[in-house]
Amino acid sequence: MARLFAELDSQPTALGEISLRRRKIPTLGEEDIYEVKLGDEFLMSSLFVDAEVALADLGLAATEGGQLNVVVGGLGLGYTAQAALNDPRIQQLLVVEILEPIINWHKNELVPVAKSLNSDPRCRYVLGSFFAMAQPDIGFDPSAPGALFDAILLDIDHSPSEFLNSDNAGFYTRANLSAMAQQLKPGGVFAMWSQRPASVAFTELLQSVFAQVDSQLVSFYNPFAQVEASNTVYVAHNHKADC
């Protein structure tokens, strides 16, 4: 009989012990479910990826251009990156991840979408802090200082007020959002995932930096609670050159 649970890897990091687990829940079908924990906290599950996919779909749908250079902040289980690569306009996708074990899980193809990411020459993993690299004097592409991007898609913190790491809080300010926006091309798009409904305060903060801000609720079914759940995707447009 196949095992219903296995821990595939566990590694110490600066943020705590991170682990990758695979399980089957017979009542939910035969498909393997992959989970990531940081310490005692559940970070993500392959059972709930609708909003991660929507982050790429909504962000790129709002992005103009025929050849797109895009940054994804936070690799996770790879679903945002995979969804982004489904857009044929993508010329280059940089996936910035601060935790090296997560990048290694993908390189070693321990997670479901890793093979599709690894085999796509447009995709490149970048080990580093998204929030540090959001400063234009550092930049997201170590091989191309000063590079500008058509879209930046962010999925790291739980929400603009609930942080994976308390050090991340400083990003959610007008000064640091404005600094990140300097790495967007004119008219470029910043999109961000949140587990919470749209925040009025954060929407107003984005509006102080970007020319246009929208948010969309992404609903999905939670089979554990047997209820409809939802996350939010914010989509913000940078000022165009003639603005």
Structural features, described:
The chain has 243 residues and is an alpha/beta fold. It folds into two domains: 5-43; 47-237, 3-Layer(aba) Sandwich (Rossmann fold), CATH 3.40.50.150. It has seven helices and eleven strands. The strands form two sheets. The chain has a seven-stranded mixed β-sheet with strand order 7-6-5-8-9-11-10. A four-stranded antiparallel β-sheet has the order 1-2-3-4, with no helix packed on it. α1 (50-61) runs parallel beside α2 (79-85). It is globular. The mean pLDDT is 94.
Beta-strand share of residues: 25-35%
Helix-strand topology string: EEEEHEHEHHEHEHEHEE
What is the CATH architecture term of the largest domain? Answer: 3-Layer(aba) Sandwich
CATH class category of the largest domain: Alpha Beta
CATH topology group of the largest domain: Rossmann fold
Q: Specify the number of helices.
A: 7
Which tags fit this structure?
single chain; Rossmann fold; 7-stranded mixed beta sheet; 4-stranded antiparallel beta sheet
In short:
This protein is 21% helix and 34% strand. It is an alpha/beta fold and 243 residues long. The chain folds into two domains: 5-43; 47-237, Vaccinia Virus protein VP39 (Rossmann fold), CATH 3.40.50.150.
What is the element layout, followed by pairings?
Layout: E1 5-11, E2 18-23, E3 33-38, E4 41-45, H1 50-61, E5 68-73, H2 79-85, E6 90-97, H3 100-107, H4 114-118, E7 123-127, H5 130-133, E8 149-154, H6 174-181, E9 184-194, H7 200-207, E10 212-222, E11 227-237
Parallel strand pairs: 5-6, 5-8, 6-7, 8-9
Antiparallel strand pairs: 1-2, 2-3, 3-4, 9-11, 10-11
Helix pairs in contact: 1-2
